[in-house]
Amino acid sequence: xxxxxxxxxxxxxxxxxxxxxxxxxxxxxxxxxxxxxxxxxxxxxxxxxxxxxxxxxxxxxxxxxxxxxxxxxxxxxxxxxxxxxxxxxxxxxxxxxxxxxxxxxxxxxxxxxxxxxxxxxxxxxxxxxxxxxxxxxxxxxxxxxxxxxxxxxxxxxxxxxxxxxxxxxxxxxxxxxxxxxxxxxxxxxxxxxxxxxxxxxxxxxxxxxxxxxxx
Length: 215
Prior knowledge:
This protein has helices at residues 14-27, 44-48, 68-78, 98-105, 129-139, 143-146, 163-169, 181-191, 211-214, and strands at 2-8, 31-37, 57-61, 83-87, 91-92, 112-114, 117-118, 158-162, 196-198, 203-205. The chain is α/β, with parallel strands linked by helices.
């Protein structure tokens, strides 16, 4: 039924995957969780490989860096179920009903569900303040507000989509650098007239970029 797809680069996703796995097992649905590291060659991957011990979980190291767009496409092409849930690797699940909320809102007449994202109430380092402020005051919107601009506010950090709809668009493969790949996808979703529902089912942004990285 549901393939949870997590692109990652040099990041520990253990907490995220364990929480997702626990909720998915409780839900009783058929599921898989796939995590592809984008050729980071990181020592963190040694820990992440332990996730393969969990039932229906696959952590894989890509041999070379292909960029976020292609990594997401690879994840989707390797998936086996009809619904895809894309989550960023630096997400944290703060709601024990996270999976249930998505399952309760799924409908045959909907193509995409977007749950949104929130940022922590504060960051300790001044070097993270710029990215944090942008996230807190620009990106963090309730579903009602996001629904006023359905496609403009659609991102892929926490998004459930029908696989057939994803395959009709795909992420732009020529984009190998980070940034705005989901803007292009959202525009294509608009052109394809995909039915989008914004819901309040956010993930917490767990890794706030330092100022110079964000710029």
